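Dear Dr. H.,

I hope your travels went smoothly. While you were away I took the liberty of generating a structure for the chain from your last submission, since the lab meeting agenda had it listed for discussion. I wanted you to have the full record in hand beforehand rather than looking at slides cold. The sequence, exactly as received, is reproduced here:
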Amino acid sequence: MRAYDGRKLLASLLMLAAATAAHAAVAFDDLDINVVLQADGSARFTEVWTVDHDGHSGTELFRRRRVSETQQISDFGVTENGREYDLVSSWDMYASDKEGLCGMIEKNDVVELCWGTGSAGRHTYTVSYTVTSLVRPYHNGHALLNYMFCDAGNMPPRNARVTISRADSAFTEADVIDLTVNAGNVRGEFNKGQFILTAPKPMAVDEYLAMCIEFPITAFGEMDDGAYDMGVTASELTSPMMTDSRAGTYKMSLWSRLCDFYVEWPVLTLLLAIAAVWLLFFVIKKIAIALA
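The corresponding predicted structure, in token form, is as follows:
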């Protein structure tokens, strides 16, 4: 009778764990970043975020962009299902109601682009903004793009892709002097006039997608060939991927992380749960025998 009751209890616990995890998961499913380089070296970013919220892990999302002395971020906006979020002049991260709102926080050399998460469930946000001087001229008639486009941070995307193109025409091989991507879970390529970065596997918290490209300055028709003093340092030339671009929420509970692991590895999670419950029964049985 006791063994039968134990099996019923085990089955109930596993069913409850599976149901709870399935409904409580927080997942950053897809991140698609489209970067269009302009003739003056500025860039228009359009990011599409597909996120599932549990309703308990923060009230906002954000994209952090580090900017140099020659860079500015402008024209920030967020839309969802055709609805344009209201841009507030001063973002309050402690506000209780942020649904339908977006705003920027500027502090020293970092700009945070923030927006409210809204209700629990699946959301697809389109985030757009302009970064000036993303491509900067330096000596010998060259121009440099050196940027971390996606830093997984505390909410790693399962699927991530960055596409870099030119507004007026497709890039050719003659427009590329040198191309470098960061090491690790990243694949970089030049394909059909575009630069493409992808993460072959779901990203971990310490992973990122970054690219360093050297162009001839003639690849950008409105860039001043004589404006060499644009903040490009020697260390930046030899060590790309120096800018921070963190995506995430301001609050992510341990329970949400465990639930996210369940969504990514459901069979492994259930096997671990079964092993843990049987181990617990074994320990309790040994203790009971010892005390008898």
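Two observations you may find useful: Residues 266-291 form the longest helix (26 residues). The chain has two domains: 2-23+255-291, 27-251.

With kind regards,
E. W.
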